[in-house]
Amino acid sequence: MAEINWTALTIFIVLFALITFLGFAAAQWRKGDLDMLHEWGLGGRRFGTVVTWFLIGGDLYTAYTFIAVPALAFGAGAIAFFAVPYTVIIYPILFLVFPRLWYVCHKHNYITAGDFVRGRYGNRWLALAITVTGIVATMPYIALQLVGLQVVIGAMGVSGTGYAADLPLIIAFVILAAFTYSSGLRAPASIAIVKDILIYVTAFAAVIVIPIQLGGFAKIFAAVPPAKMLLAVPGANTTGAYGVYATLALGSALALFLYPHSLTGILSASSGHAIRRNAAMLPGYSFMLGLLALVGFFAIAAGVGTAPEYAAGFKQFGNNFAIPALFLHSFPSWFVGVAFAAVGIGALVPAAIMSIAAANLYTRNIHREFINKNPTDKEEAQMAKWVSLIVKLGALIFIIFVPTPYAIQLQLLGGIWIIQTLPAVLLGVYTRWFNDWALLIGWAVGTGVGTAMAVAMNYTPNYPLAFAGYTFTGYTAFYTVILNLIVAMVLTPLFNRVSGKPVDATVSADYHA
Amino acid sequence: MSEGKTTRSIRQGGWSWWYLLLVIQAVAVIWPPFYNKAEPSWIGVPFFYWYQLMWVILGAIFTAVVYFATDSEHR
Predict the structure, then answer these.
(1) Contact yes or no for B63 and A218 at CB 8 A
(2) Which pLDDT score is estimated for A160?
(3) pLDDT digits (tens, 9 = 90+) for A215-236
(4) Contacts of A170 (CB under 8 A, 6+ apart)
(5) CA A136 to CA A134: how far, in whole Å?
(6) How far apart are CA B9 and CA B19, in angstroms?
(7) β-strand partners of B42
(8) Structural domains of chain A, count
(9) Where are the domains of chain B?
(10) Which residue, A63, A140, A340, A391, could crosslink A346 as a Cys pair with Cβ 3.0–4.6 Å?
(11) Distance from CA of B74 to the nearest CA of A (A)
């Protein structure tokens, strides 16, 4: 750890300089008036199928994912593979639901989920709940991207004491903030292309070269302890690890496209068809993520966990150091530089999109709704640019001053919170049946109970739900969104009796081509 | 004639039997007892892993089939 790996660091810096240039140059790409919010914050809704593929891929399959999923496989084994069914399930949802949302948002110039809910239900408080949930769930997610960046910077031997230790992170973030401010969503869209090529090269090199070095898959899996290789078979009266695996996959899949950054990526597509095509093309990333999860097992087989030269890294970063350690162990220095740059740049793309998405939400659904009701286009876009800076600064301060485990716990809570917007947003795309106040109370109950369950379980994702002598251990987000739905369904007929005629700014023709 | 009708109903958010392919891919991976076993392994990779990875590819193919079958304006 003490020695700086100069070859890797040089390559890393060169690639970083390249994407910095790209980020600023992106302002000229498919040029639009960046003083309009939909130009700055959605790239003018002009991205075709291929750019959308890179953008959403770079947005959803984050650096943290590429570090954390293999780290989970390394530490906990088979359960980490829930990421695969999760990413199989998300694409039917993307295919069926989100083209409808795209059409209605395009028609009414909606930029956020808050905009849609405000129009669909005419209830500013429900829209505020959706907005605040989106912003609060996004903040720790941005912070976690920095964890990925921190790990690879540390793995190249760049270290320091006190505040100097955080200097590389701060530099990376200042660059990110500057090009996001000046180019908006065009910056991460153009950088995503470079990042994704690097990630694909790294992933395929890893799954081809390392198994050859280790003597084949049979040898690798022979080195994996049997308890980690498969899910534990449940005992009597419980769904055990099976229930955990299935609800984690399903709950994560339902939550994913409710995140503001997912929606920003989707809405920036140029048509509903581009989204449908992407539902068939994006599994390319899922496949790579599945392969990378296997890389966690390669790390077990290579024995990096017990090698003395990596002990300091594991001590500092925990299992998140497994993949960087394996790359250092298996690749020549120059390729380590490429791989680490892929992870580092892979942190900046989603961080940029997330900060843009949070800025869009604040600007449209809090500032315009409650503070300055009639901004000019220019004022609105300028506000979003400032907010994107504040959001990133917040994430940076968070990661420097708050221990990493808290960021992970908050991100976990974020998943439980964001899924509570499902009835209003995802079902709202299909039906106006629900009463808006019933949705708001359902949201509040789901959020409150979900938070309490997570706290009771000491910030772990699963809750042992006991019912009629059976124990159903499963993902808290999944259980609580069902509770949320039940509350909303029960209260809707009651509230409809006392409230007036439902308001709806959209008509059914708005939801398709 | 029925072609036009189908297209219109899908565009308005209606159901198409092609969507069953999307349901199949979700069902195939959602319940671990289907695949939580080591054998038959493939080039040393336990069934649990290659089965799920295979469904990523099949899912992409199924989704593409549904796209070409239902999206009237594809090129």
Answers:
(1) no
(2) 66
(3) 889 889 999 998 888 998 888 8
(4) A396
(5) 6
(6) 13
(7) B45
(8) 1
(9) 2-70
(10) A63
(11) 7
CA distances from A88 to A279, A350, B45 (A): 10, 21, 20
CATH code at position A229 = 1.20.1730.10
pLDDT tens per residue, range A483-494: 999 999 999 999
Which of B:24-63 have CB within 8 Å of A?
A: 25-26, 28-33, 36-38, 41, 43-46, 48-49, 52-53, 55-57, 59-61, 63
Question: What pTM did the predictor assign?
Answer: 0.91
Interchain contact A283–B (C-beta under 8 A) = yes
Q: Is the pLDDT of residue B6 over 60?
A: no
Q: Number of A:B CB contacts under 8 A?
A: 122
Greater pLDDT, A31 or A188: A188
This complex has an ipTM of: 0.88
Matching residue, tokens 């059914």: A508
- C-alpha A359/C-alpha A383 separation (Å) is 8
CB contact under 8 A, B12 and A250: no
Find where tokens 């490429």 sit: A338
Distance from CA of B72 to the nearest CA of A (A): 10
Is residue B63 within 8 Å of A92, Cβ to Cβ? yes
- Partners of A513 on chain B (C-beta within 8 Å) are 11, 73
Query: What span, in angstroms and rounded, lies between the C-alpha atoms of A388 and A399?
Result: 17
| A79 interface with B at CB cutoff 8 Å | no
Residue A358 and residue A138 in contact, taking contact as beta carbons nearer than 8 Å: yes
Task: Say whether pLDDT at B15 is over 80.
Answer: no
Query: Which neighbouring-strand residues pair with A475?
Result: A462
Residue with tokens 């994912």: A65
Domain hosting A25: range is 6-408
